[in-house]
Amino acid sequence: MAPSQNEKPVDSADQKVIIFDTTLRDGEQSPGASMNLEEKLEIARALELLGVDVIEAGFPIASPGDFAAVQAVAKASKRARICGLARSLTKDIDAAAKAVAPAGERGRVHVFLATSAIHRQFKLNKAKDQIVKQAREAVAYARSLCADIEFSPEDASRTEPEFLAEVVQAVIEAGARTVNIPDTVGYAYPDDFAHLIDYLNAHVPNIRDAVISVHCHNDLGLAVANSLAAVRAGARQVECTINGLGERAGNCALEEVVMAMRVRKDQFGHLFTDINAEHLYRTSRLVQSVTGLPLQRNKAVVGDNAFAHESGIHQHGVIKNPETYEIMTPQSVGVPTNNMVLGKHSGRAALVGRMQGLGFEMNDEQVDRFFDAFKELADRKKEIYDGDLIALYEAVVRGRTLSQWRMVYLQSSAGTSAVATATVTLEKDGEHITDAATGHGPVDAVINCIDRICGVESKVEDYRLRAVSHGRDAQGEVSLRVRFLGDKGGKSAIGGKGLSTDIIEASASAYLDAVNRLAFEQERIDYRS
Ligand code: KIV
Ligand code: ZN
After folding, report:
1. Any domain includes 296
2. Half-sphere exposure (CA, 13 Å, Cβ side) for 89?
3. Are residues 64 and 98 in the same domain?
């Protein structure tokens, strides 16, 4: 391990790097990634299986829905610490402490306040001494409600190091057990960021009373590199998200930081994490499915191409010895490698066995539903691949659970010289409503029609269609991001996802999914204000 100027003496507790997952909080701030309570619970369960140490479950003051979700995660959790975010305000801290209370001793309140000159001047309009006072008082207050307090000086990497050290010293005195150093805007550079950790170790007299954490954003694609550099310099908590989800370009990707430490042990001495890496792929899939945000194929560790060898030279080498071109095995991160194809003659037992192999357990009722959907799909599609099965499971068993409106009927027509038209019937509270509309193509016509029925207006900011498996009859998965306009519009764009062998139907389902999420989004406040 590279020597750090101010290395602490190493005992076994010092060798563990705490993995703090913020998929449910910072990750959820990705445009269009909002999740409902059930979805947050499902991800929290998966994170516990994955072995993360801390789950930041949300920002409880943001809305009653966020509060309820953090509280529900705290109640359901078994092992991980459950954390709620709070600005340095009494009302935020009260809400966060109350929301994490069901986790008992495992509850954590994460208080933050911006410290950089630009934030002090333009966002907070506060002088340095006012910032120190507010941070100290907020932490002391939080500590009166909860034993485990983390403090973040927001925009730390752009804060004057001397002032940062002063704030860090003050919050540790006030009772913070963890001091998190965020690179809020993804501006840091690995060497500089490591030096900042060294600087704090050298200039904050009480630094040994707290764990140093880092929280890196990926605006320059350096979030993982910065986090690893900080770990080598003495940070012992890394804040990260599954798939690197998060504001703007995202956060440090959990799967990458964990596998970098594992594969390049030589760089990290005896440092370790408690992550069960063979759950990484499955957790990544789950987060993609819940958020409706698919990954690029070449995403490190969990992307579809991460272990695909196209060129003959590579294939030849890998067959002879996988280590020629593979630095880690697909199995080590839980990528399913059995590509046996199922079809309409496959039986229930074969299907259940295949799903178990992919890591999906179902109860009898779920198997019934899944098997019916599988048979329907097999009628439309000859060969069913793992990708189809996972997508079908996500649509049929897990479902996207906010469904005020349900699609009953859809018909669309379009052509090179015809006006695209769509007729849709939706159901809400037992009532069926039918309408028709035209558009600049069948997808536009269907969306116009749904808008008329639901009384909404929108701008589709992003639309993606991908085949979940191979062949011309592959199922199309549509992921879109919608900004609703007018009185009913929420504060941010909303994501939606739909699946079908008919891409117009998949588009309609994805759009309806976003409409169903709108009500949930409307009540949120923006914590950065
Ligand atoms: O990026 C950031 O600074 C944050 C803080 C709230 C930790 O997300
Ligand atoms: Zn952040």
Report:
1. no
2. 15
3. yes
The secondary structure of 59-110 as a DSSP string is -GGG-HHHHHHHHHHHHH-SSSEEEEEEESSHHHHHHHHHHHGGGGGGEEEE
64 phi and psi angles, rounded to 5 deg: -60, -35
| Overall size of the chain counted in residues | 529
Cα(442)–Cα(437) distance, integer angstroms: 10
Closest atom of ligand 1 to 85 CA is 6
Tokens of 462: 């992003």
Q: Quick one: how far is CA 75 from the chain centroid?
A: 20
> Quick check: 65 and 428 in contact, CB under 8 A?
no
Instruction: Give the Å distances, CA to CA, from 466 to 163, 474, 499.
Output: 49, 9, 10
pLDDT digits (tens, 9 = 90+) for 388-400: 888 888 778 876 5
In this structure, which residue's CA is closest to atom 1 in ligand 1?
184
pLDDT digits (tens, 9 = 90+) for 22-37: 999 999 988 778 788 8
Residues 518 and 384 in one domain: no
**Ligand 1, pocket-test mutation among 83, 112, 237, most atoms within 8 A of CB:** 112
Statement to judge: residues 412 and 472 lie in one domain:
yes
| Co-location of 347 and 428 in the same domain | no
106 touches ligand 1 (CB under 6 Å): no
- Classify residue 301: in a domain, yes or no: no
E strand or H helix that includes residue 240: strand 237-240
Please state, in angstroms and as integers, the Cα–Cα distance from residue 454 to each residue in 392, 413, 434, following that order. 27, 21, 11
pLDDT in tens, 315-370: 666 677 777 777 899 999 998 776 667 888 889 998 998 887 776 778 999 999 99
CB atoms within 10 A of CB 221: 11
CB-based contact 94:62 (threshold 8 Å) = no
Higher pLDDT pick, 108 / 469: 108
Residue 26 Cβ < 6 Å to ligand 1: yes
**Ligand 2 center to 229 CA (angstroms):** 18
What CATH number did the domain enclosing 413 receive? Answer: 3.30.160.270
The bridge status of strand 418-428 relative to strand 406-415 is: antiparallel
**Residue 348 domain boundaries:** 336-398
Residue 478 and residue 351 in one domain = no
* In a shared domain, residues 361 and 436: no
- Pairwise CA distance, residues 373 & 364, whole Å: 14
SS3 state at 413: strand
3 state SS of 58: strand
Asked whether residue 164 is assigned to any structural domain, the reply reads yes
Which atom of ligand 1 has the smallest separation from the CA of 251? 1
